[in-house]
Amino acid sequence: xxxxxxxxxxGGMMPLPNRHLTSVLLRREGELFLFDCGEGxxxxxxxxxxxxxxISVIFISxxxxxxxxxxxxxxxxxxxxxxxxxxxxxxxPRIAEYIESSRRVLxxxxxxxxxxxxxxxxxxxxxxDGFHVRCFPLKHTKPCYGYTLEEDIRSGEFHPQKxxxxxxxxxxxxxxxxxxxxxxxxxxxxVYPDDVLGPPRSxxxxxxxxxxxxxxxxSAHVTGSDLFICEGMFEKELAEDAHEKKHMTVDEAAHLAxxxxxxxxxxxxxYSPRYNDYExxxxxxxxxxIFPDTVLTRDRMLFPIEYIDK
Length: 310
Description:
Elements: E1 3-9, E2 23-28, E3 31-35, H1 41-47, E4 55-59, H2 65-68, H3 71-76, E5 87-91, H4 95-106, E6 114-118, E7 123-128, E8 131-137, E9 145-151, H5 160-165, H6 172-178, E10 183-184, E11 190-191, H7 193-196, E12 205-209, H8 217-222, E13 227-231, H9 239-244, H10 250-259, E14 266-269, H11 277-288, E15 294-296, E16 302-304
Parallel strand pairs: 3-4, 4-5, 5-6, 12-13, 13-14, 14-15
Antiparallel strand pairs: 1-2, 1-16, 2-3, 7-8, 8-9, 9-12, 10-11
Helix pairs in contact: 10-11
């Protein structure tokens, strides 16, 4: 089952010609999930040939303009597509007010159901087939949340040789064992999944954190992430300025990744517009000194997230 993250926008505060505002799209076997929707999101969706009508849920971190201004334009496309399933929008308090006022003032024609859910407490905010999305509070100038998408535990690896040794015929019975069902062998004996399967295997985990002071609890929430997308708005010399605005520096983002257990990759996002592309290399250098497996995100960058079985 494919799991891929597309960077639709990596910038913060104001859009630049080659740096749209923050937005990340996660594709899991054809189903799409959007994390924040800054200005320029539609442009990247079109350039990547991603069909917005397949987006099941939009998760919003907070209601600052650089994270939500792409939503009205996205919704206004609804008059041009056929869609049967509802679109869920999940975010902090006042996200419902923002969506409703945008629809009313712009007189949008919406031909499908939009379900807006405001977060009232941390925890699981969405469940899908074989995964769930959890939110956790961040520390910003207004209510703000980080998100993790985590797949369920998978069955252990199937060992055909063990099934053969237990006289289980190849075919449907092997499939049932892999699904966790008990079967009868050719000689009438009970054969259980544990008899032919290895230990359970973890699913994959994606984490998204932006616009927050750094604090230890973030590491606990994102631990085990195969891909940890985290804001890297300022270099460490500007820590005082960053903290005044309730943001973190790149070295603080790297420390969060290093303090977490088993983070595979840290991807920095939401850069201050003060940095040109050359200057961003200094931010990357600072982060890699603490967490070597760090990359700078760029608009329309793709991150495949693979299973890693230990």
